[in-house]
Amino acid sequence: MQPEFREVAESIGLQIRSILLDDRIHRCATVLHPKKLNGSYRTDGCRGWVKNWETGELATWRAAESRARHVVRPAPLPSLAQRRAEEAARAERAAKLAQHKIKSAVAQTHPYLEHKGFPSMLGLVLDGLLLVPVRIGNETVSVQEIAADGVKKNLAGGRMSGGFFSLGSGGVEVLCEGYATGLSIKAALAGLHLPARVTCCFSAANIATVAERRRHAVVVADHDRPVAQFSDMGTGEFYARRAGLPWAMPPCLGTDANDFHIDAGLPALQGLLLDLMQRRTAP
After folding, report:
1. Nearest CA to 247 among 218, 209, 205?
2. DSSP code of 77?
3. DSSP string computed for 180-224
4. If we measure between CA atoms, which residue out of 55, 49, 47, 8 comes closest to residue 25?
5. pLDDT tens, 258-274?
6. Which residues, at least 6 apart from 111, have a Cβ–Cβ distance to it below 8 Å?
7. How far apart are CA 233 and CA 230, in angstroms?
8. Which residues pair with 106 in a beta bridge?
9. How far is Cα 246 from Cα 244, in angstroms, rounded to an integer?
10. Measured distance CA(37)–CA(54) in Å, rounded
11. pLDDT tens-digit profile of 180-229?
């Protein structure tokens, strides 16, 4: 069973070290970001599903009949209503935990921010982890935890689809993926004296989701490596195009706006943003 289920997972870009057959949701790594838990799966040995949160791809799996009768199922899969109730309960628990963590955090510098070019920047830190709130509307629904080495983890069961974290305010809004990317974009716009709201969406697929309610915005995508399932476009470009908003990305493959800031300097990122803003206002 495991080789077949693993093949389905790998077909959408997931990496699962050891498959657990307990009919519970587990997080796992992806091929593009093996140090992050941006995938999830659930299986009882007879059937299951896998989800790549970076690309938004979902795949289901069912064991072949000849193999399925040799698998001892721990319990029947819950109904759709039961699954939704369970997911809602998990989301509520995650939201309460996120709110507790944020209230308990202290504003201080963090090694991750220093590595990303912001040594004096204060962030919410708890137990050595940098916390980035995930909000939907005015409600905190989850939190992203970032370790000193850059490994990111979202709260299990927390709502991420449609979630965001915004920096600043202004007539211009820029959607991007990660927190450090957002900080670089914000710094570049501040240097241009452009009041702006920079909204971090945590993944490329979620940019397209958030963009549904941000039709005035623009997108700065990560320049990801091409993948076959997106017609050889990178994940960032694919979802930036799907968002249907003016968009741009750094020129170098495998980089984001923070990399561009560090490698080429803030003026280079400012040039990219100015060009994007001009396209935004063009008739």
Report:
1. 218
2. P
3. HHHHHHHHHHHHTT--EEEEE-SSHHHHHHHHTT-TT-EEE--BP
4. 49
5. 999 999 999 999 999 99
6. 148
7. 5
8. 125
9. 7
10. 10
11. 999 999 999 999 999 999 999 999 999 999 999 999 999 999 999 998 88
Long-range contacts, stretch 14-21, CB < 8 angstroms, 24+ apart: 14/39, 14/41, 14/50, 14/52, 15/39, 16/41, 19/43, 21/45, 21/74
State pTM to two decimals.
Answer: 0.77
Q: Which residue has the tokens 């029947």?
A: 76
The per-residue b/e assignment along 3-34, b for 16 or more CB within 10 angstroms, e otherwise, is eebbebbeebbbebeebebebebbbbbbebbe
6 token code pair = 């693993």
- C-alpha span between 16 and 30 (Å, rounded): 8
Domains of the chain: 2-77 (no CATH), 91-159 (no CATH), 161-283 (3.40.50)
CA–CA separation, 76 and 55 (whole Å): 30
Sign of CA pseudo-dihedral 162, 167, 169, 174: negative
Per-position pLDDT tens, the chain of length 283 = 567 899 889 888 899 989 999 888 999 998 888 888 888 999 988 889 999 888 788 888 888 744 444 444 455 666 778 878 888 898 999 999 999 999 999 999 999 999 999 999 999 999 999 999 999 999 999 999 999 999 999 998 899 999 999 999 998 899 999 999 999 999 999 999 999 999 999 999 999 999 999 999 999 999 999 988 888 999 999 999 999 999 999 999 999 999 999 999 999 999 999 999 988 766 5
- Which 3 state secondary structure label does DSSP give 250? coil
216: its two tokens: 């005035």
Q: Quote the CA–CA distance of 21 and 84 in Å, as a whole number.
A: 20
